[in-house]
């Protein structure tokens, strides 16, 4: 296994839930990351879905040393390199494209590409990937779909993301081919907007206690 795969495995194995974050106000980034670290979820995915996302990755990387900051919603090689320059320690995409595969192969930073069908999983496998995001998890078939992949595609482990919630998270975490899940429920927009970091810390603590 390559060194960067080992690094990604350690990050994903470290906690049952990866918070998927949308930062609307740069000033929220550091206190949000600190709350998640306090709650036991140091690995976080800051999505490039808002104009301040790259600055948020940079700020959290610099100011919250205990956080393990990844970048999500990476769609292009340019996104990839900007996120890495800002300090991202892992890169997540909703899908897999040749442009991103090329960018990933030239980078020391590990890449978690997304897949939602057996053919996409097999294409990623041919490129040497064993850890994949399953996106959009609930919409693409949920836990029963992933369970059905476990026998034919036994070497692949997934981080399902999209529609995962406290209601269904146990179904995913009980599967042998799920390494962790991604979800936004631990950092709701409403609590971020209100600066309710204690509530987010508590949501993180509850997520941290989930069993894989
Ligand atoms: O932008 C990306 O790359 C994503 O991964 C999107 C995520 O799936 C959602 O941000 C999380 O989905 P929910 O937990 O259903 O809110």
TrEMBL record:
<comment type="subunit">
    <text>Homotrimer.</text>
</comment>
<dbReference type="InterPro" id="IPR031337">
    <property type="entry name" value="KDPG/KHG_AS_1"/>
</dbReference>
<dbReference type="InterPro" id="IPR000887">
    <property type="entry name" value="Aldlse_KDPG_KHG"/>
</dbReference>
<dbReference type="Pfam" id="PF01081">
    <property type="entry name" value="Aldolase"/>
</dbReference>
<dbReference type="GO" id="GO:0008675">
    <property type="term" value="F:2-dehydro-3-deoxy-phosphogluconate aldolase activity"/>
</dbReference>
<dbReference type="InterPro" id="IPR013785">
    <property type="entry name" value="Aldolase_TIM"/>
</dbReference>
<keyword id="KW-0119">Carbohydrate metabolism</keyword>
<comment type="similarity">
    <text>Belongs to the KHG/KDPG aldolase family.</text>
</comment>
<protein>
    <recommendedName>
        <fullName>2-dehydro-3-deoxy-phosphogluconate aldolase</fullName>
        <ecNumber>4.1.2.14</ecNumber>
    </recommendedName>
</protein>
<keyword id="KW-0456">Lyase</keyword>
<dbReference type="InterPro" id="IPR031338">
    <property type="entry name" value="KDPG/KHG_AS_2"/>
</dbReference>
<comment type="pathway">
    <text>Carbohydrate acid metabolism; 2-dehydro-3-deoxy-D-gluconate degradation; D-glyceraldehyde 3-phosphate and pyruvate from 2-dehydro-3-deoxy-D-gluconate: step 2/2.</text>
</comment>
<keyword id="KW-0704">Schiff base</keyword>
């Amino acid at each position: 296994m390559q060194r960067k795969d080992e690094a990604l495995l350690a990050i994903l194995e470290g906690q049952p839930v990866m918070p998927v974050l949308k930062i609307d106000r740069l000033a929220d980034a550091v206190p949000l990351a600190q709350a998640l670290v306090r709650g036991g979820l140091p690995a976080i995915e800051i999505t490039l879905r808002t104009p301040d996302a790259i600055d948020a990755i940079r700020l959290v990387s610099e100011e919250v040393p205990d956080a393990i900051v990844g970048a999500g919603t990476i769609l292009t090689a340019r996104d990839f390199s900007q996120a890495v320059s800002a300090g991202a320690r892992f890169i997540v995409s909703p899908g897999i494209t040749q442009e991103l595969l090329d960018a990933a192969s030239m980078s020391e930073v590990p890449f978690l590409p997304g897949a939602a069908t057996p053919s996409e999983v097999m294409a990623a496998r041919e490129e040497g990937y064993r850890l994949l995001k399953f996106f959009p998890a609930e919409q693409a078939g949920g836990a029963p779909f992933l369970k059905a992949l476990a026998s034919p595609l036994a070497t692949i482990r997934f981080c399902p993301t999209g529609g995962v919630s406290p209601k269904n998270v146990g179904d995913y975490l009980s599967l042998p081919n799920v390494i962790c899940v991604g979800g936004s429920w631990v950092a709701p927009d409403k609590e971020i907007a209100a600066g309710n970091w204690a509530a987010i810390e508590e949501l993180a603590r509850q997520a941290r206690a989930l069993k894989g």
